[in-house]
From TrEMBL:
Belongs to the abscisic acid and water stress-induced protein family. Signal peptide: none annotated. PANTHER family: ABSCISIC STRESS-RIPENING PROTEIN 5, OS04G0423400 PROTEIN. Residues 118-136 have a biased composition (Basic and acidic residues). This is Uncharacterized protein. Residues 1-65, 118-143 are annotated as: Disordered. It comes from the Eukaryota. Residues 1-13 have a biased composition (Basic residues).
Amino acid sequence: MAEEHKHHHLFHRKKDEDQPSVQESIYSETTGYGEPGGGYAETTEVMAVSSGPEHDYKKEEKHHKHLEHVGELGAAAAGAYALYEKHESKKDPEHAHRHKIEEEVAAAAAVGAGGFAFHEKHERKDTKKEDEEEHGKKHHHIF
């Protein structure tokens, strides 16, 4: 009974070894002399093996969208920390220089995270464009 049921793991992901690889014979040649039972014979066969299923553009697009959101959250968090440090520099004049430095570092991190989010947005758009080029764009004309 236990052999019949496969255990489903978190998110029900399939592993690559579960999917058989596709082989296709491109060229085959047999050369030789003599009788079929003896003598010299050589067989040459060239095989092409696919590397697996075709590229999953939807999965890649989803991945870039996720990273874009991570970048946005990082930018928001670093920006909030920069504002907090600016407030602390005014509130604590004894350590104002330290707070000013931390504010600048946080502002730089916010800019970097914003740039990362921008980069991932363009990667997602490029992936979507590649998918449309490969599978054909679906046009929905209203007029």
